[in-house]
Amino acid sequence: MRRGSLFAPLLLIGLGLIFLARNIYPDLRLLDYLAKFWPLLLVLWGVLRTAEILFWASNKQPLPSRGITGGEWMLVLLLCFFGGTLHVVRGFSGGWFPGTIEFGGLDMFGESYDYSVNGEKASVKAPHVVIESFRGNARITGIDSDSVKVSGHKTIRSIDRDGADRADRETPLEVTGDSGTVIIRTNQNRASGLPRVTADLEIAVPRGASIEAHGRDGDFDIRSIDGAVEITSQSTSVRLTDIGGPVRLDVTPSELVKAVNLKGSLDLQGGGGDIDLENIAGRVTINGPYRGNVEFHNLGGSIHLKGPQTEFSAERIPGDVRMPLGNFNASNLVGPVDVETKMRDVQISDFSSALNITVDNGDIELRPALPLARMDVHTRSGNITLALPKDARFALTASTGMGEIVNQFGSPLVLDEARRNATLRGSNGGPEVKLRADRGEITVREALPNEPPFAPRFGPSSPKTLKNLKEFSKKIEQ
Amino acid sequence: MNPAPPNPPPIHPPPPPPQSHLLMRALTGPLVLTTLGVLLTIDYSGGITFGRSWPVLLIVFGLCKVAEHLGPRGW
Predict the structure, then answer these.
(1) Considering the entire predicted model, what is its pTM?
(2) What residues have CB less than 8 Å from A251, skipping those under 6 apart?
(3) Helix A39-58 and helix B20-44, axial crossing angle in degrees, nearest 10
(4) Measured between alpha carbons, how far is A417 from A420 in angstroms, rounded to an integer?
(5) What is the Cα–Cα distance from A129 to A229, expressed in whole angstroms?
(6) What DSSP assignment string belongs to A135-172?
(7) What residues pair up with A153 in beta bridges, in sequence order?
(8) CB contact under 8 A, B27 and A76
(9) How far is A87 from chain B (nearest CA, A)?
(10) Of the given ranges (A313-317, A330-334, A425-429, A454-458), which has the lowest mean pLDDT?
(11) Chain A: nearest CA to B49, how far in angstroms?
(12) ipTM > 0.90, yes or no
């Protein structure tokens, strides 16, 4: 009888080793590794099976009629599904596995043909500019003028020049509407057959304009606009600079949303990768799963972020918040501040307004400034470290369900230790501070002078995003 | 005394059925699987996206089938 394949037992051994490693080093980011390297499992599987079959063949043992049985292919399919989903969920890519499959040879063997496009329409000083079903990159700039001017080029992928020419005729750029509402229509969806038409447009509009854009697969770069901006788009990155009116973005998935110097509010729906907001005067609302690096700097209005794993709100952020994967680092917040998260280590420094934190699984480290405000801090699994200024006034209650408490602050705190849990209490007439760790340790210590803030001003940006923006700028400038 | 009878001719086992096409048939699945893994790895490491490189799977599968047919018959 032929022996079974080696892959199953090796898989078991591998799983055992992985879980053992996880138990010994709890900090190991297993899911991240899995999300990134799962295709190597397929390679390993294939190579092992090849080696097995060659071995059987050289020993003149009977060979299986199929190297990989139907059931095993189902397993492969399942693995691809879970691996691909994990890859997206952990924020390594914006789209779902395996991205857009490109059929028909056009994208592989076809060539790109470029056509320049131009259009202009006179308008009032503050027109409403609508960009319809757009695919490609657009840079929209507000200037002192009374017309909407479009220039740039259209890229058509086609097998031959004739096909491209036909697609070009089918997709004329139209700048229509009246002087109050200018409509920019690329007609890209009119191209018959397979040629794919994208455009890189430079659009100059009067400074007072408001912008409304619908599209997919491309980047919007909008600057120096006094009116409102509304973008509804798929697979789009958005970069906004110096916008006067309220901004509404509905972009899924977005690789990057970056906004600098907004005078109005920002409402962001969707999901995707990085968010980077700086100098926003109005209210900021973010709703959706963002898996990349999320950063806020100097937000003058309230902020409310709601994702599947994390919810955060604050009154203002004069300082910085950085949320790389698995972390929430903040410095200089004005509250009431609420942080609720399933899987992040939370570090907050330099705050003196009310604070509520609930963490399912993660450590919490706090360094409040004087005067202290009410704090209610709870982690189900993880450690809490509270560094209090020397002259702080508080009424503190810290308790653990399973774990010890270390009192490095000294009086007036008094420790009451039981066999598995502990309570630390003490008051010198300040606001209520409640710390609770169900499984984990609590440390209360005195803050050292000049400890650095938790959210360094400039963090490492995602190289992927930077590269895309550079490519985008290069394209536009051509 | 009669000279010792010459050794009987060795009994050859019947020649095994040509295994090469069976081998190629068995190897097709693992080779395609390995290719799939390699293509996805290239995609994830920032190279050619799987959306573009997937026809390689067809090519590998086709080559395996060709090899399977060429094997037993020779040229």
Answers:
(1) 0.65
(2) A231, A232, A233, A234, A236, A238, A257, A268, A269, A270, A272
(3) 160
(4) 8
(5) 10
(6) EEEEEEEEES-SEEEEEEEEEEEESSHHHHHHHHHHS-
(7) A116, A200
(8) no
(9) 9
(10) A454-458
(11) 8
(12) no
pLDDT tens digits, residue range A359-387? 999 999 999 988 899 999 999 999 999 99
Supply the pLDDT for residue A95. 43
Angle (CA) A398 A401 A404, round 5°:
65
Q: What are phi and psi of A275, to 5 degrees?
A: -130, 135
Out of A60, A67, A80, the one facing B27 most closely (by C-beta) is: A67
Name the nearest CA neighbour of A273 among A295, A248, A259, A294: A294
Please, is A25 exposed, middle or buried when counting C-beta atoms within 10 Å of its C-beta (0-12, 13-18, 19+)?
Answer: exposed
B34 CB-near residues (< 8 Å, 6+ apart): A42, A43, A45, A46, A47, A50
Total beta-carbon pairs less than 8 A apart between chain A and chain B = 110
- Helix (H) or strand (E) holding A106, with range, is helix A106-109
Which residues are bridge partners to A405 per DSSP? Answer: A442
Peptide bond into A318 cis (omega under 30): no
Q: Which residues contact B74 (CB under 8 A, 6 or more apart)?
A: none
Q: CB neighbours (10 Å) of residue A339? A: 24
Chain B residues within 8 A (CB-CB) of chain A? 16, 19, 22-23, 25-41, 43-44, 46, 49-52, 54-55
pLDDT at A454 over 50: yes
Mean pLDDT of A281-285: 94
Residue of B nearest to A92 (CA): B44
Q: Which residue of B has its CA nearest to A64?
A: B26
Cα of B67 to nearest chain A Cα, Å: 15
